[in-house]
Amino acid sequence: MIKVDFKYEAVAQALGEVSRRLDDMTPLHESIGEYVVEVTKQRFKQGIAPDGTAWAPKSPVTLAAYKARGDGDRPDPLIGPSRRLSSEIARFATADSVEIGSSLEYSAAMQDGARQGAFGRTARGGPIPWGDIPARPWLGLSEEDEVNIIDIVDDYLEQAFIERGFNG
After folding, report:
1. Residue 51 falls inside a structural domain
2. For 38-89, what is each residue's pLDDT tens digit?
3. How far apart are CA 51 and CA 166, in angstroms?
4. Nearest-CA neighbor of 145 among 41, 51, 60?
5. What are the residues facing 100 on neighbouring strands?
């Protein structure tokens, strides 16, 4: 067995701080969650999936239904009258993980798509949903996101050394 004793107090303190940071990574997970929520909201403005592909446009039937209900012209995919899906993206960070998503019932159908009638029928016998919904992936990570998250982790750990006065 090899034993290493640090003679430099600053190094030992910095390593101790890194160890403490690794015991409770809630702040790191909060930072990652904030980043993912922000880039996801930006994708809604651009109408693109995490892989950069454009979302399928709304069908003419959907656009006509909006106008018939008095909701106006809403051509942007995944942006409905309430704008809830694009604005209510949530994150939940703990010491062990971060989860990003939506509590809206229809969020999974927007992400994965759904076939007409996949969720049963209305009281009047109509299909739910009333038409096919194409998959429009709104949640996920791009390759750039993965690199940026690694940078967030690096910065988090580096900060432990800087706070102890050890700059390399």
Report:
1. yes
2. 999 999 999 999 999 999 998 898 889 889 998 888 888 888 888 999 999 9
3. 39
4. 51
5. 91
Give the SS3 label for residue 165.
Answer: coil
Given pLDDT bands bounded at 50, 70 and 90, which one contains residue 96? confident
Task: Say what the pLDDT of residue 158 is.
Answer: 83
pLDDT of residue 65: 87
Structural domain boundaries, residue 81? 9-100+143-163
Q: Which residues are CB-contacts of 166 (< 8 A; sequence separation ≥ 6)?
A: 10, 11, 13, 14
**H helical segments located in the chain:** 9-23, 26-46, 60-69, 84-87, 107-112, 143-163
Domains: count for the chain? 1
| Residue 3 covered by a domain | no
138 close to 44: Cβ distance less than 8 angstroms: yes
| In-domain check, residue 105 | no
Helix orientation angle between 9-23 and 143-163, rounded to the nearest 10 degrees: 130
